[in-house]
Each structure stands twice: as structure tokens, then as C-alpha cells.
Amino acid sequence: MRAQFVLSEIGVGLRRNLTMTFAVIVSVALSLALFGGSLLMREQASTMKGYWYDKVNVSIYLCNKTDAESFPSCAKGAATEDQKKEIRADLEKMGVVQKVEFETADEAYKHYKEQFDKKSPIAGFVTPDQMQESFRVKLKDPTKFEVISTAFSQRPGVQMVQDQKDVLSNLFNLVNGMNYAALGVMALMLVVALMLIVNTVRVSAFSRRRETGIMRLVGASSFYIQIPFIMEAAFAGLLGAGLACVLLVSGHYFLVNNWLVDQIDLIQFIGWDAVLAKLPLVLAIGLLMPALAAFAALRKYLKV
């Protein structure tokens, strides 16, 4: 009988404040969707870092005959065969080095033409003798770039030492910036949702002040009186969390699986396991957050 009464009170409360309940559902859904999206974006950034940092190389560019005027380190002319052999031998002795590959000027020119021939207006003016020979060094630990840089940047015949990981820093900074922006908007939406929940509870408590007063007079406990209000908020929050889960699943299916995967081949996107793992957390927050907000609000507004 008590359970039936509580359920009936929940239905009455939701019907009386239908517009505000709908606003709570939407605001909770948007804030939790942004929360889940920011978690997925952070995991995507970690996946990208692990994927790309495992593939990046350290490039040791050698001097060619056209570098003497542009690079002081190349003042003595192009790298000699003895210098190349010495650099390769020293690289292969280093414990941080996993693999060493040598790229000739002709190979560098071929790769350049493949990448920029249709994009760069000066591609047609570049000749193979202007390209640098280089050693592509695969490190066991990508963070050990300074070891290679210190050892070879001032060596005779070396134009410069470049860490390809630095090229990716701007991309990861952009992803992290988008993640922080999503968290900021999520926090704002969360504040709006909490204010709506508190206001909805206040209106609901005021509209039923006569019923709650009678219940208090006949000996009902404070917790028994508060249960319908708390469950109303929790139910609305759970609906919002469910909608947020639908948005996350739909976003991954339509945006990632059916568009970005086809448009961007160079990124390894997170899978369904990462998305599904976040849904229980979203549902739990959607259930508990409104319930706790309602409980805190009732201590102030449910006084008869």
C-alpha cells in the first residue's frame, strides 16, 4: 500500500510540473552527454598518443651540397660517406635505439612528390639534389629524443635532428583544448540542471504543502514524506541519463563509425567497448545527482 502511494505521488508530481520536469530531463541529458563525450575524447587522445608515439621516428637530416650557406653546421659541405658510416655505427650502438633506416635523397624526393606534388605550388621546382639524406631512428622509448639530439645535433655532416613527436603536439593540444571546452560547457549545463531540480522540488513541495502537512500531523516520518520528491527527481534524472546514453551511442555510430572512419584514415578511433563502458557511469550520475540535489533542497523547502 505504501509503495502504491509513493508511486502515485510520483506520478502526480511529474504531471503537475511537466514543463519543468522536461527542462530537467533535457538539461541533465545535455550535461551528461557532454560529460560522457569529454571522457571519450580524453580516451581518444590517449589512444592517439599511444598509436602515433609508437610510430614516430627521430630524423637525423644530413647536409647536402646546397646547405652550406643556410646552415652553419654544413659549412664544410655535404656529409661524406665516412661520416654517414660513423653516424650509423654510433646509432646502432645506442641502447635507446630500436631500429635505424637510411633514406637517400632520391627516396626523399619520391616521398615528397607523393605527398605534395598536387598540393604545393613549388613542388615542380624541387629537384632530388635539394633533398636531404637522413637517418630515420626508431626509439624504444619515444621520450628519449634528447639523447639522440645531444649526441648528433653538433656532429659534422648533420644538418639538424628533428623529433617527429613535436609535429603531433599541436594536434594533441587541440584535442585537449576541445576536451577542456566540453568539460566547461558540461559544468555550466550541470549547474543549470541542479538549479532546475532545486526549483522543481521547491514548486512541487509548495503545491503539495497541504498534503504533506496532513501527513506530518498523522505521524508520517520526514523520510517517508520526502521519498516521493526524491524519486521524482531521480526518475527525471534517470530519463535524462538514458537520453544522454542514446546521444553518446548515436554520436559514435553516426559521427565516428559512419563518417570519420571513412574520412580520416590516419587516426585509430576508439571502439564500442570504450563507449559502452561509460554508459553505466552516466546512468549512475543521472540517478544519484538529482536525488541528492532534491534531498538537499527538501531540508530547506519541506518545512510544514
UniProtKB/TrEMBL annotation:
Segments traversing the membrane: 21-41, 180-201, 222-255, 275-298
All residue ranges annotated as the FtsX extracellular domain in the record: 56-161
Annotated ABC3 transporter permease C-terminal domain residues: 185-300
Keywords: Cell cycle, Cell division, Cell membrane, Membrane, Transmembrane, Transmembrane helix
Organism whose genome encodes this protein: Streptomyces aureoversilis
Entry's family note: Belongs to the ABC-4 integral membrane protein family. FtsX subfamily.
Subcellular location: Cell membrane
Subcellular location, principal: membrane
Protein name (database record): Cell division protein FtsX
Function: Part of the ABC transporter FtsEX involved in cellular division.
Entry superkingdom: Bacteria
InterPro entries: ABC3_permease_C (IPR003838), FtsX (IPR004513), FtsX_actino (IPR047929), FtsX_ECD (IPR040690)
Membrane topology category: Multi-pass membrane protein
Record-linked Pfam families: FtsX (PF02687), FtsX_ECD (PF18075)
Keyword Transferase in annotation: no
Quaternary structure and partners: Forms a membrane-associated complex with FtsE.
